[in-house]
Amino acid sequence: MKRYVYINDENLAKDIYCDNRISNRKYTIWNFLPKNLWEQFSRFMNQYFLLIACLQLWSLITPVNPASTWGPLIFIFAVSASKEAWDDYNRYLLDKKANEKEVWIVRQGIRKLIQAQDICIGNIVWLRENDEVPCDLVLLGTADPQGFCYVETAALDGETDLKTRSIPSACMGIDGVIECPSPDKDIRRFDANMRLFPPFLDNDVFPLTIKNTLLQSCYLRNTEWACGVAVYTVEDFYHVCVEMIRGICGIGNQTKLGMCRGIPEPKLTAVDAMIDKLTGAIFVFQIVVVIVLGIAGNVWKDTEGRKLWYVRYPKEGPWYELLVIPLRFELLCSIMIPISIKVSLDLVKSLYAKFIDWDDQMVDPETGIRSNATNTAISEDLGQVEYILTDKTGTLTENKMIFKRCCISGRFYGNESGDALTDAQLLNDVSTGSADVIKFLKVMAICNTVIPVRSKSGTISYKALSQDEEALVCAASRLRMIFENKNGNILDIKFNASPLRYEVLDTLEFTSDRKRMSVVVRDCQSGEIFLLSKGADETILPLTYTGQQVRTFAEAVEQYAQMGLRTLCLAWRKLDEGEYQEWASMFKEANSTLVDREWRVAEVCQRLEHDLEILGVAAIEDRLQEGVPETIETLRKAGINFWMLTGDKMNTAIQIALSCNFVSPEPKGQLLIIDGKTEDEVCRSLERVLLTTRITESEPKDVAFVVDGWALEIALKHYRKAFTELAILSRTAICCRVTPSQKAQLVELLKLCDYRTLAIGDGGNDVRMIQQADIGVGISGREGLQAARAADYSIGSVSGTSLFNSVSLMAYNVFYTSVPVLVSVLDKDLSERTAIVVFVITIHSYAFEKSEMEEVAMVALSGCIWLQAFVVALETNSFTILQHLAIWGNLLGFYVINWIVSAIPASGMYTIMFRLCKQPSYWVTMILIVATGMGPVLALKYLRYTYRSSKINILQQAERLGGPILSLGIIEPQSRSPLDKDLAPLSITQPKNRTSVYEPLLSESPSATRRSIGPAQRFDYFQSQSPLASTYTRKDN
């Protein structure tokens, strides 16, 4: 289905298409109550509590006031709903800030400021340099006379390289109509047409491509201004519902980025899932008990009960009489699942989340941005993560490239000093005018899309399409080859104070398939034409002229790769005028074709890029975020697996993975590559990699696999079972050139294998992955706030009556049992136990006393509170003032509250607490309850610490004795070998005709445990057992 966008005429589209309001909200005012109740009652535990509460409304079967259950139930649902409302309100505030951001639009030739949410289809949006694009635009004009502008798409596809965008070739006015397809999530394609109204060019139709667009969440760079017409906008859920009611078809988030995000689903934590399962199991057990006891009770009633005059059973009862006794037993058995557990969990989760907000150590020192827990319901899952899936750009790296070393004509520079820019030999060759060095520096300074900017003080800075290009141009400038000015296609260079001028005739742009970039330039002084090229070694080295020796350059590439440096090969060739003119006509024709344009352009480029003279190899360092390698190494030792999901190139991703300790160094490791463009190629590659992984499974090797987006798409669609097995066998994966949708699919694949996943990213292209993961972490970084807005964390009595009074029972469920557990978030290791001794001791202590039922009930309740306080105190490992206040303050608060209630005549507890506190038997009973209840607990604790100490027990004892705990390594059961102490350097060998099995490479961390189909050897205390590969689902040994 097509849509027609009338330029600068919003009235024709205002009632058809949605506006531009961003929304990451989960609820609206209208659907909050029903949707929240539906989500809460979708959990079995809540359904169980509702069933018990409803049964207590039947006075014939319940011995207590229904308020004892309905009160806590309403309270916990109110707390949960309030917490959800608060989380959603915070998301609303973030959306509101984005929606109310002011943007310029042009109406009838006049610029006007409006809010971003008010942009309509057909509006002309005016952007200034460094502005964020608020919706999908078709470019109509720029400050550049040739109609070009530059955009940063890192928030969209994860690539930091700036992209060139241009206005349509025949865009002479702003009055016309754009015919574009229905919204889709393909961020690399836009097939549309534009027709300008007469008198422009006789109403001809002009094709539009993705290069004529500015997509939402990109940033305008290196361009003073640009303007474009809005073709796809954003919409929130509320307006979608209104439009659906009105019968309007244009609904939903219609930008390409919005289509990639998807709809977030409610997240269920591992603890909640476990409690639901336990609740279900206990409920089944209750049903069995209720059936057995119900049948026995009815049989006794019919055979013996009706004979007893004091029971007063009627001779004939109603039809539902058989249900009364079983349902009474059900209510009696309901204490097996205490409702207080729900109260405690919700309050503890909220407090955990606030601790994240309050943590002063989780503040970015550069920006001052604090961590924030947007979702307060999943805090406990942070300690159960098994897989971390991370973006690369802006998450692992800083995107700060530095030129470090180079090899020119077989001579290495920078090996001794570690920095080629300070290498004495290179500086001397520059001073003496070495011909090979000058050629190398010219390619560094010219073969790029860099724009030099001169400040008022005269200093020159560079705005580059990529950090690589900026590093090369800056390095050339320091080596006296200074790129001074760019005027259209004319480049002004100065070398040793001598001016040089070149005209750029054509630019052969970099693509993921070509893996190289070239420019055709003319020397304005001599008139000679040159082809300058730079790119990956596997694409440049095979293009050399016959006879040139490239072995030294290949060795340089391998040496620099071992150091974790990014490498680029530089080359050039002189062209004849006739050869260039013939090629230029073919190049122009290929760029104007509408069918298979990219393939045609690549074919024409290949006709020119041959017989190159290799000048040398440049090595660039990509700086990592501070502490990334150490953090990843520590988490891998803890048994957490890492996957890198990036839109960047494969070579770049591999090098970053090596630098980050994503994969371990050799000699014991392997890096396996899955590639191919067809089903057969991907199938063979996947089978080969999977076979290698199975073979190495019996060996202590750290196997990682690499896959690009194209092969991943085929594998997930046609060979999902095999790919899933590979994912389980490999602890590490590097996925390159992947789309936002593919990132989410990989997260979903691991979740289907019953793994707990955490996804972290900082761009709009990471939003869907973050929403799909069990835990989503968004970074408020250079790529905007899209990820942070969508993330969970941003950087982070069989007698027929009740023993207890209804008010006391409700308070026990809501307050007395929840407050001590609530402060357990301050403890490091806590477990709570209960004892049946309370009832036994209470009944026997008051067996011969003339006491009211309420007195006995209060004694039993007091025993519960006392025993609970001492058990919690015993199980607490690290006391703080708050914990003392909560444990003993809770005990004191119990007496204060009940003294107040006992003073109220209508409370049903009048004078009871006053009388009890005066009785010595009451306090003796408390001592007996605590002593009897704590005896088994102390005995078990002694046996556990003395004879079956866990690792945490050992560490706790060492800490209490004052012993040093210097590192995690002291609890490793296996010592490291000499080989582990001296790890060999990394090595990447890229042979010309390499196979998918990329080895030898990488070794395992000495403390990591390999996943194994057969027996596996445990290397480290922290490493948990892994699932069996053959089942594709998690199985704990």
Automatic annotation (TrEMBL):
It comes from the Eukaryota. Residues 1022-1037 have a biased composition (Polar residues). Signal peptide: none annotated. It is a multi-pass membrane protein. Residues 5-70 form the P-type ATPase N-terminal domain. GO terms for biological process: phospholipid translocation. It is found in: Membrane. GO terms for cellular component: plasma membrane. The chain crosses the membrane at residues 278-300, 856-874, 886-910, 922-943. NCBIfam families: ATPase_P-type. PANTHER family: PHOSPHOLIPID-TRANSPORTING ATPASE (PTHR24092:SF19), PROBABLE PHOSPHOLIPID-TRANSPORTING ATPASE (PTHR24092). This is P-type phospholipid transporter.
